[in-house]
Each structure stands twice: as C-alpha cells, then as structure tokens.
Amino acid sequence: MAKKLAVIGAGLMGSGIAQVSAQAGWEVVLRDVTDEALSRGTDGIKASFAKFVGKGKLDAEAADAALARITTTTDLEAAADADVVVEAVFEKIDVKREIFSTLDRVVKEGAILASNTSAIPITKIAAATSRPERVVGTHFFSPVPMMGLCELVRGHKTSDETLAVAREFAESTGKTCIVVNRDVAGFVTTRLISALVVEAAKLHESGVASAEDIDIACKLGFGHAMGPLATADLTGVDILLHAAENIYTESQDEKFAPPEQMRRMVDAGDLGRKSGQGFYRY
C-alpha cells in the first residue's frame, strides 16, 4: 500500500483530507501558496484533533502521532516522491489545469493524480497532463473528518488500476466509496444537490413557500437530515451557484440553471452561514 501523500491546497477540504490521511498512517505533505494559508490549515487540523480527543473519540498520543506525519510547504516540487497526489484548490478549471500540468512534470512515473473537484469533468483536468490514465476524481465531503463518503470519478481515460489505487487510498481513511463510471459534470452527488437546491430556490423566489417550509418538506417528507436551502447556506450559496452554473454550461439542462435570486444573493454577499445571511439569518 502506497503511503506517501501530497495534498495541494490547505483550505477546509485540503486540510481535512490531510488530517484523515495522516490519522490513517499516511505520510502527508500539505502544500499551499502562502505560509499564512498553511498556518490556517494546520491550526484547523489541530483544533479538529483536539475536539476528537476531548470527546474521547481519539487518544492524545494518536493525535500527536498523526500531526507529526504532516509536513507543510509552499513548494509544489515537494510532491515529487508522493505515491498519491490530491488537488483541493479553488473550483476553477484554469487553476486546476495549471497545477496538474506542473504536477505532471514533477511527480514520479507511477504516481496517481487525483482531484477533489465536485463538479469539473476529470477528463478536462487530465488533458493538461501526459498521463490521463493516471488521473482520477476523489471527491471528499465537508467536513472531511466527519463525512463518510468519497465519490470516485473515472475520467475518459482513467485506468482500472488508477481507480483501484484511489479506492484503496480513500477506504484507508475510513471512507465508503461510490464510483462514477461516466465523467459527467457534477458527477452524482453535485448533480443531485444542485438540482434540488436550484428547484428549492425557484420555489422560494416565486413565493410558492417559505425557505423554512421547503426545508421542512424535505426533512419530514423525504427523511433528509437537512433541507436544501439550509444545505446551501452551510455549503455556501456562492459555492452551489458556481457548481450549478458549471453543470448547466456543460449539460445545457435547464434544471441546473440557477434562478436570479441566487445570483443576486451572491452579488450582495449573502453567502449563507459564513456571511451571517443566506436563505436564513445567522
């Protein structure tokens, strides 16, 4: 089993992936462009471990050992000896392609290049490399230490061996995997939540029902743990707007076309919990 992991991007997702991987025994190098970003990421990991220790779900020695397996860097060349590389940067195709093009030159021949993208086709990212058969999607969910799912995505040229290594990696961190066999924008999970959030936002925008009642309908009628509009606020209205727009651009399917209300909310900075106002006030 490969045991050296490079995580590109120390934000909420990248630091979470680094955390669960280090806890599972992987030697992790966490890379971001600034020392400040790396400090925020490692502070978040330490705080998360402290919570698990405080609740008795992890002993302090295991937490310390996991932390010791994480090193940080601003140098992309540090991924050179990694067996698996997971990219977890902002959801912009140009940014991801530039990183993968560089990683293609840097990493060793047998390495797996994975993206944590939630909506961008893996094939488009893989095309920036000379090894598209070694590129795969590993879509973790936030917060990574708490969420049990990893969505594995085959690009048009992803090999069976690459998919198997990606599954082995994700399962080693305690995740249950689903496989997306055809590289459609948004994969399975982002397509489902985007369609639900977009329709819920349209119902809200047109005055059919309040945000609270739409969410109650999904919770009590369908058994959802959280309603779609509360989910949008938790994830970030801007994040879900961007995901729906990506899927709509690729598919031209009207059900993914976000309503104007969502665009105006983002224009106004009403992004959900992180801004204090979204479909709900916090």
**Total number of beta strands:** 8
Q: Could you report the average pLDDT, rounded to the nearest whole number? A: 96
Query: Element order, helices and strands?
Result: EHEHHEEHEHEEHEHHHHH
Give the helix proportion (percent range). 40-55%
- Could you say which structural class the secondary elements and strand pairing correspond to? alpha/beta
Largest sheet: 8 strands, mixed
Strand content: 5-15%
Backbone shape = globular
Cα distance spanning the termini: 45 Å
- Low-pLDDT segments: none
What oligomeric state do these chains adopt? Answer: single chain
Individual helix count: 11
Strand order, largest beta sheet: 3-2-1-4-5-6-7-8
Radius of gyration: 19 Å
SSE map:
Elements: E1 4-8, H1 12-23, E2 27-31, H2 35-54, H3 60-68, E3 70-73, E4 84-87, H4 93-106, E5 112-115, H5 122-126, E6 135-140, E7 149-154, H6 160-172, E8 176-180, H7 189-205, H8 211-222, H9 228-235, H10 237-251, H11 260-268
Parallel strand pairs: 1-2, 1-4, 2-3, 4-5, 5-6, 7-8
Antiparallel strand pairs: 6-7
Helix pairs in contact: 1-2, 7-9, 7-10, 9-10
Describe the overall structure.
The structure is a single chain. The chain has 282 residues and is α/β, with parallel strands linked by helices. Helices cover 48% and strands 14% of the residues. α9 (228-235) packs across α10. The model has no long low-confidence stretch (mean pLDDT 96). It holds the Pfam family 3HCDH. Keywords: Oxidoreductase. Belongs to the 3-hydroxyacyl-CoA dehydrogenase family. Residues 186-282 form the 3-hydroxyacyl-CoA dehydrogenase C-terminal domain.
